[in-house]
Amino acid sequence: MSAAVRLIAHMEIKGEHVTKGMRMEGLRRVGAPDALMESYFSQGADELLFTDIVASLYDRRQLLALLEIASRRIFVPVTAGGGVRSMDDFHALLQAGADKVSINTQALRTPDLIGLAARTFGSQCVIVSIQAKKRGDHYEAYVDHARQPTGKDAVAWAMEAENRGAGELLVTAIDQDGVGRGPDLDLLQRMALAVKIPVIAAGGVRGGADIAAIVERTGLDAVAMARALHLDGQTLSAIKAALEARGIATRPADLAGEPS
């Protein structure tokens, strides 16, 4: 019996707005971060994920004030990422109220940062974000919010990140992101077979049927959603009800944040 599925509301933040694009480009504003996080919390989100999508380019730190608000109003685990370059960045985000920190670009540029952060803050606080694009018969890891290819195999990088101390992976299929075609089950299955730490599936998830397919075909039990919640009229409470109707357990509020 698989663990209860963990549903994560993902908010990609640019300046003072939550945005959503297609394949991580062509961004459109979808709302205010504080209002959306309260809405998703009230709907039953198991976790929230905030990503500052321009921090790596412009050295912005928009998340600290938002995290301080969340720490007073939101009572599920919160992950923050975007532009994380150093131990000081980890410390600042955790001190502001984040429970976990997501790192992508700098993890690939300075892989030793993964282990240092894991030893200092605990591996449960370190999420390595992997943005993957299909290239022939394999997937390539990208950085800078999917703007830059790295030449590194995404699955090999996932295994290395686990070995270096990551407690969790956030795997986003770039080609599926925001286009409404469903998740990349091949990518997710490869990741599930390659590592033992929890993998959060992201990119293209449209609702309960897609989540059920992820759980049933890959064994993963954590899913991050953006467009489905921001633009497509889906609610987390309705998604949970649909999953329960299919025999897939979801997390009650008092279990939010427990390990998979």
TrEMBL record:
EC number: 4.3.2.10
Matching InterPro entries: Aldolase_TIM, His_biosynth, HisF, IGPS_HisA/HisF, RibuloseP-bd_barrel
Biological function: IGPS catalyzes the conversion of PRFAR and glutamine to IGP, AICAR and glutamate. The HisF subunit catalyzes the cyclization activity that produces IGP and AICAR from PRFAR using the ammonia provided by the HisH subunit.
Pathway(s) where this gene product acts: Amino-acid biosynthesis; L-histidine biosynthesis; L-histidine from 5-phospho-alpha-D-ribose 1-diphosphate: step 5/9
Species assigned in the record: Paramagnetospirillum kuznetsovii
Family label: Belongs to the HisA/HisF family.
Subunit record text: Heterodimer of HisH and HisF.
Amino-acid biosynthesis is among the record's keywords: yes
UniProt protein name: Imidazole glycerol phosphate synthase subunit HisF
GO biological process, one term: L-histidine biosynthetic process
MF-aspect GO terms: imidazoleglycerol-phosphate synthase activity; lyase activity
